[in-house]
Amino acid sequence: MARLLSTKKLTESQRQLVLNTNHSLVEYNAISTEVKPEAIPKRNIKNAIITSQTAAKICIKHQLMFKSVFCVGQKTANLLINAGYNVVLICTYAKYLSQILVEAYSNETFNLLCSTQRLNTIPSALTSAGIEFKEHHIYSTIPHYKSFSNQFDAVLFFSPSGVKSFFSVNTKTPNYLVCIGETTAQSAKKFSKNVSVSLTTSIESCIARAIKLLNNQ
Length: 217
Known about the structure:
One of its GO terms (molecular function) is uroporphyrinogen-III synthase activity. There is one protein chain. The protein has helices spanning about 10-20, 55-60, 75-80, 95-105, 120-130, 160-170, 180-190, 205-215; strands at about 5, 25, 30-35, 45-50, 65-70, 85-90, 110-115, 135-145, 155, 175-180, 195. By secondary structure, it is an alpha/beta fold. The protein has 2 domains: about 5-30 and about 150-215, 3-Layer(aba) Sandwich (Rossmann fold), CATH 3.40.50; about 35-140, Rossmann fold (3-Layer(aba) Sandwich), CATH 3.40.50.10090. The termini are close together.
C-alpha cells in the first residue's frame, strides 16, 4: 500500500478513486484564495481574459459583463458558458492562448482578470506584441504551510502556488510529483526530476496518473 498526498481537499467521488485502490490518502489545502473587491471592475468589458476557475467564479458572482471571453482551461470555460457568457476561445495553457491572441487578435484590447500572483505568460506576450491590455488582480492566493514527518510515495499538485507552499516547509522529496498541467510541472521540476503530468487538466486525471505510477512502482 502506497501513501498519496493531495495538496487540495478532494470531493467524495475523487477520494474514492484513491481509496478503492487500497492506497492511503492524506489531503489538505496548500493554498486558499481571498477576493479583492476593490479590484473588481465596475464597468462593462469588451474582451476579458480569464485563466482560472477562481476568477471565473468571482466574475459570475459579481455579474460582470463581458462581450467576449478568452479562457484557459475547459472547466473554467464551462463555468462561464453555463452562466451565459460568450466564450470565443478556449486553450489548455496560457502560452497557447497568448500565441493565438498575438496572431489573430492583435488589433483588440483586453482585460486580464487574475490573481495577484499570476504568471507572466500572457502579460509578457501581449506587451511584446504591443497589444493594449489592463490587469485586474481580483483575488490573491494565500499559502497554508503544513509540514509532514512521514514520507509520501506521491504528491498531487494543482498549481505553482501549491508547489511553493508545500516545499516551503517540507524537505523530504516524494517518489513522484504528479501535476495537473505543464505550468505546475515546471514549478515542481525545481524540486525533483520525478515529475509526471496528468493527461488532461482535471483532478480526476491527476489522480489516475498517480495511481498508475503507484501501482507500477
